[in-house]
Design brief:
37% of the residues lie in helices and 12% in strands. It is α/β, with parallel strands linked by helices. It has 2 domains: 60 residues, no CATH class; 247 residues, Rossmann fold. It has a 7-stranded parallel beta sheet with strand order 3-2-1-4-5-6-7, sandwiched between helices. α6 links the parallel β5 and β6. The chain is globular, with a radius of gyration of 21 Å.
Length: 314
């Protein structure tokens, strides 16, 4: 939550309007708390922030409470930078403890951001294209935190070349990292979630889950598969308390799109087609990730949520 500072006069006016409201995550003498922060926005003296949602037994769960992830544990693959880092930090800001992952090194910068948000964090590394790494990431998370509630399958890579020249090596790499890892990680994390009867799995799909793209045949094939895997797992696990959904980002400013953004012919054409008039930022996925990871999305299964600035409308 954004912290607000105000002059004493403005603060006094605000107090008169919403007297007794606290933003520290604890029950207020006059109202139930509806926000999360370590400092009251009204300057009231409050008890320390609690690690779990608390509310009076005689009042229903407020809608903002449903987006809180207090006491939950998440694993976000490919979170050393870009989309994964933004999602990891967002989940931490919503209250979850987060295991962060990098393919070749520990994502220490992201880990520091997660800790700064008030959450616990575990840094992991490994190539998700390898079978044993997928199993280890889940088991290390469970061992460290005592369980896993949220899995975000974000790790991925891309190779660009004309289809007629696209090598089998690139094909295998992309399928292993972008598709097979999603199957393996979902399966490993799913076993823990199914045993408990609850869990949230979020796959990062793409606009190429729906479109063929240009010069990226293996990437398009893998992301198309991610969409179908999302639906297949959801069909089996929805009735067992485990939600499997996906987010399909549009054209985002990340390492994967650097070549496109530097292309003097394609970059302007792409931008012209986006109704929002800009490329997306990693933080644009934060709200969707928190929604799909929270109890606010309990009746959402097998959905692919497109966040593209309106690209698919055109």
């Amino acid at each position: 939550m954004e912290r607000v500072s105000a002059s004493s006069g403005a603060a006094e006016t605000l107090k008169k309007r919403i007297t007794g409201m606290r933003a520290c995550g604890t029950a207020c003498p006059r109202r139930g708390c509806v926000a999360e922060s370590t400092q009251c926005i009204l300057g009231l003296v409050c008890a320390p922030r609690r690690s779990a949602i608390t509310r009076r037994k005689d009042r229903p769960l407020l809608i903002l409470d449903k987006f809180k992830l207090n006491g939950k544990t998440a694993l976000v693959t490919g979170s050393s930078r870009g989309l994964g880092a933004a999602i990891a930090v967002a989940l931490a800001e919503a209250g979850a403890n987060v295991a962060v992952h990098g393919s070749s090194h520990l994502p220490e910068a992201t880990q520091r951001q997660v800790i700064a948000a008030g959450a616990q964090s575990l840094a992991l590394s490994g190539d998700v294209g390898e079978r044993e790494v997928c199993a280890r990431l889940v088991e290390d998370t469970v061992k460290h935190f005592g369980g896993i509630d949220i899995l975000v399958n974000n790790a991925g890579t891309i190779r660009r070349s004309p289809a007629v020249e696209h090598s089998e090596e690139d094909w295998k790499l992309l399928i292993d990292v972008n598709l097979t890892s999603v199957f393996r990680l979902t399966q490993h994390a799913g076993r823990h979630m199914l045993a408990r009867g609850s869990g949230k799995i979020i796959n990062i799909a793409s606009l190429l889950t729906f479109q063929g793209g240009i010069l990226v045949p293996s990437y398009a094939a893998a992301k198309g598969g991610v969409g179908q895997l999302t639906k297949a797992f959801a069909n089996e696990w929805a009735a067992k308390g485990v939600n499997v959904n996906a987010i399909a980002p549009g054209y985002m400013e990340t390492d994967n799109t650097e070549a496109l953004r530097n292309n003097p012919e394609r970059a302007p054409k792409i931008l012209e087609r986006i109704p929002a008039g800009r490329w997306g930022q990693p933080e644009d996925l934060a709200g969707a990730a928190v929604f799909l990871a929270s109890s606010a999305s309990d009746y959402v299964h097998g959905h692919i949520l497109i966040i593209d600035g309106g690209w698919m409308n055109r």
